[in-house]
Amino acid sequence: MKSSAKLVQMILLLITALVLMSSCAEKREPYKVGAVFSVTGRASFLGEPEKKTAEMIAKEINDKGGIGGHPLELVLYDDESDETKCVLAVKRLIKKDKVPVIIGPSLSGNTLAVVKVCNDNEVPLISCASSIKIVAPVEDRKWIFKAAPSDSHSVERIFEYLLTKNTRKIAIMSVSTGYGASGREQLLRLAPEMGMEILADERYGPKDTDLTAQLTRIRGTGAQAIVNWSVGPTQVLAVKNWRDLAMTSIPFFQSHGFASRKNIELAGGAAEGVLCPLGRVNIPDLVPADHPQKMVIMDYNKAYQARFKEPLSAFGGHAWDAMKLAAEALGVVGPKPATIRDYLEKRQDFVGQGGIFNFSPTDHNGLTKEAFEMVVVKDGDWALAP
Amino acid sequence: MDRQNRNRLVGLIFFLVLFPVLVMNVGAIGHYLDVMIFVGIYSLINMGLSLLMGYAGQISLGHAAFFGLGAYTSGILCTKLSLSPWLAMFAGVAITALIAYIVGVPSLKLKGHYLAMATLGFGVIVYIFFNEEVALTGGPSGFSDIPGLTIMGLNLNNDLYYYILVWSLVLLTLIFSLNVINSRIGRALRSLHDSEVAAAAMGVETSRFKVIIFVLSAAYASIAGSLYTHYVGFLSPSSFDLFLSIKLVMMVVVGGMHNIWGALLGTWLLTFLGNEWLHVFHDFDILVYGAILLAIVMFLPEGLIDLTPRMRRLWKGR
Amino acid sequence: MEKISLTGQLIQYIFTGITVGSIYAMVALGFNIIYNVTEIINFAQGEFVMLGGLIMVFFSAFLKLPLPLAFLLTVAVVTGVGALMERFTINPLKNATVLTMIIVTIAVSILLKGIAMFVWGKDPYIIPPFSGSEPIVILGAAIQTQTLWVLLMTAVVVVLLSLFFKKTRYGKAMLACADDPDAARLVGIKVNTMVLISFALSAAIGAVAGAIITPISLMEYDRGALLGLKGFGASVLGGLGSFYGAVVAGILLGIIESLCAGLISSGYKDAVALLLLLLVLYVRPSGLFGNVEAGKIKEF
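The joint structure predicted for all components is written out below.
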């Protein structure tokens, strides 16, 4: 009798222990990452690949057992490219979902609209938008980081290239959105510094149907090169009109926003000879095998194309960097906003899609103009610019 | 003020006091307070639009511009000239009212769709101005780091305080508007809405009243703009585009444009739908939003405010 | 490359203006047809253009149908969409105010845009020009061949519409509705049917505009609103309800924009065009060719 009672006791103990253990393993609370992207609306070409990439990475991490056993929970909202909606979405992430770190938004304007919210609530944010104002002045941007390279890096790269070709008289065109205006600002600021002369400064709306008038005016100024700063359909339109007007003897430069093969396809043959600075993520095959970014870029390209059956854009790469940085920080320091912030600020040599990031208390972007390569459209594909 | 209005007002105040107590104690909807702040800001504009559309019978597809003028005046004066935000708000109202007057006098002579086009055109011109005058407005990349509001040393940079501020202003404006409706001007306006010719024949100075209400509604929008500026701390033209103007008119019509309470109801419903309740549908939210909108206007052409009277009529009709 | 002469520039600006303006004119025609019969401004008019472009892409680029067939099918499908819209949303509303009707059309435009987003996604699409892609050079100005197609189709639409309204029974009946719906009803015209036809016809014109502009300007799901706005501007400038007004005003608006972009400021081109529009309205409250009386009656 005594022994059987002991047996029962033993079994009960075992069961309790098992239940406790299993519940322990299950009870590992999920780590949350908040995300706000412009999945619909005028900036959907940014938000769409960003959303896909973030979801893909979340799945990859969870398939491998999560972050140190904690499942990763991606809480993603669409701000519909609208600032008010973006502010409310970030507030919801902070107050309702209580996320310790946020990635996005996709747009510079939307990011700037939530700077105050993140600073006030002390939650780190890794933006996927490009404006330099997102991280400057850094004293007012304590909680804000940026995974996308700045426009100034791209502009510097283009000007450097132009100088090697001895071209100093240029015309610029930009779309009247945050993206275009921010690029235009940097073009106008850096031109005198780097010895460039801007002969024409043309603008157009994001839904304009024809840019012939702007290009014709440029043609009248005798500019030696054209730099166009836009995203969306107008960047294709600009190339088409440039070709139709037989202006191909004036080299045409696009911003890094041209970084999708879809644009070359849409322009038909018109994009031949167009130059632009691109992140290496767009040109995996052109990156030398010994380049530190080669591996991550090849992996991402393969995974993305296998899963979504569409060419990759640089914008998805920003989400890759932001997501990986957030997940890494969660893994090292746990879900505490303040320590995540401190961790991000000290992160050096992070090999990402957009470049090699070196964050510091004075630089919350961590990229340089080396993030870009000058490329040219050749036979319907990218090639390194001569 | 008649009994119905008084009862509704008491009900609204009761709701406004209970709302923060309720949502702040329920974690899942704690952020509703922020949504309500935006509801309050848009309500300010829409009360003006309701006076203009429902009572004076004039349409405006350009009120986002007045909202933006208030917002930018506040933002620019506070940061570039370091003016006190309250003074800047006042300056915003003055500038906006002046512009509304200049635009209103010739525009309100136009009728129907021509007036719609004129106000729409004005709105787009102001939007382009915000976009192009980079030195003044920051252009499309926007204008950031605008300070928050303080009142007698108390920093209002707190959602609850801001909620109280915004909704106190909404209540004051509401009471003021109800008084306008019941004043001589209001009666004149209603006669305008019924028949402008008859009103003119009776000696009502129709054009003067129309302009007064237009300017008043612009002033409401300007105050709303200042409140928006100091709450978000960042401005860019895309927050004040044509689509906002259309959205505002939709809120007023969905709520019921012949009644100022309808404007509040419509603003509340569409703001919560668009920002909060449709998230479960993910990318489909735009379709659901369109369908709900269509259903409301088709089945309740007089707006949501007509829901209870209509039910009552249906009930009695049986 | 040598600089282009001023004459060459001017020719270029005017040609560009006429091309873009022709599209505005067609959108404005669509507005006018519906307005004449119903007094409604159909805010979904721009969405018809968008649908025209995207459906054309579907038929000609995905299904690889021959161009004329793809074009006709596109027009047929969008016409169907217009008719359905009228049957399901406008027809059931009997005593709604004009403003309510307008909000209904806005809701429909949101729905159409949403549906297009799901069917085609968010990326822009393009189809090759209808004939040859080498531009024609006149005095240094380069004219795309598709531009000639736009001009030709606009002319065809205008001629067909004139014939429809002058020669056919339905066309005459529609004009009668425009003049006085009650009187039209008295003489036995089915106003109900006329409203249906007006929506179908507007949708068809929108589809033509969308299909011919896509090779020039690309097309994506959210392009409709802006085209609608420009078209509305043109129809008001020309005088609501006036067909010739719509055509003249549309092309005028296009030329003003283009000249302004080329000679004054590309950033302010839309603002200048709108400012001129406002000034015209202040001087002539019913637009350039509008009926003063008609402008006075129609209110909300």
